[in-house]
Amino acid sequence: MNMLNTPKEMLRTEDRAMEEIKTDVLVIGAGSGGLSFAAGASQMGADVTLLEGHKMGGDCLNFGCVPSKALIAAGKQAQAMRSGEKYGVSPVSPKVDFAAAKQHVHKVIDTIAPVDSQERFEGLGVRVIREYGAFADKDTVVAGSYRITARRIVIATGSSPLVPPIDGIDTVTVHTNETIFDLMEKPDHLVIVGGGPIGMEMAQAHVRLGCKVTVIEGAKAMGKDDPEMAAIVLDTLRAEGVEIVEGAKAQRISGKGKTITVHTDNGDFTGSHLLMAVGRKANIDRLNLDAAGIEHDRAIKVGPDLRTTNRRVYAIGDVAGGFQFTHVAGYHGATVIRPILFGLPAKAREDHIPWATYTQPELAQVGLTEAQARERHGRALEVLRFPFHENDRAIAEGKTKGLIKVMVVKGRPIGASIVGEQAGELIGLWALVIANKLKIGAVAAMVAPYPTLGEISKRAAGQYYVPRLFENPTVKKVVGLVQRYLP
Q: Which residues hold NAD(+) (predicted)?
């Protein structure tokens, strides 16, 4: 939810009549978290008012998850045409219509948009007001010509791309995820500042669609992921032509004509277009949080129950800090249903939250990485491994680049890392296991259809029993005795 008006402008009421609204719950922001909560609360009988001054569906639908995956899909189609030789299909150089690829992106957005539309939510009984909101006091928000008082308030304003104040950045055109999908001309050379998931996804999509791409990262590319897994992704991107420069902090930006140069402490890098993908900032600046007694720094401070320092107000999703994922916002929205509607306690967890980077190969994670698990559990940790190149479906599909690692303590998985084809789909099983505190035997006992990539998880779980059964002298002796005396 973008904030355009200042709190003073929003609270200036002397020149206009204000319409008073009293509601059970006021939701500020119609992104994933706000919509999830509003739909559930309204259908359960609460009087719900929803504020959104920008686009329904928030960042994910309009500028993030949906358009990025649509563009990635276009890039996959182009890459498939280049890489058919091993299947007996002559490779060809695809003719990429970049504008048409972007039109595909917007068709996907338009197809999904009705699910998040004002009309749908009004049909569910939600009062939708297309205005931005600012607190007037602890339980009152002013939005346009409305003064809304609510028993409970849910802040779900999300986050926006961070554009750091680099010297000279205001002299050139800077794209973020909010503008890159509207760019219809193909960049000759896209320079991306930021080597995290967004930067890497966009780098691969654009290089596959015929652009030259350079990624500049101040530290380590994909530095928050397991380094062994990240290396597989980065090697693939480099092989496809993406230039990845690590340890290069942007110090100054200059531009002349159709060229933009990023000056770093590790050299200068010039391209035709610039994409900034260095992180996100919580949308809190226009909410007038101090008027409501809500503590904040870079994000709103919340407890494990997602309640702010104002007991009437909750904050969910990106604006609450922590993991900045669409599915986390949805999870938060479902979590606060319990205390707000039923007065029941509820706490949000993070140990079972999965995430994925949708490069090819994909990289997915849930729970602790190997390094985190070793630091926390030391010698009690067991790491189970299984490679994609030993999976029959991966062999048949020619998608053998990949690996799964499962971190186990006392028979219970505490983390899983997967890099490879459909890693984002495969991680769901391990998110289920960790969320429900299941033991590794639950996965080992699973029967997966053959041949599927799902067998990779079962085979990894089976590694837990190799030293206990197949390499155990006692087991061999017992089997020998049973076989000798069994009638």
A: 194-201, 217, 279
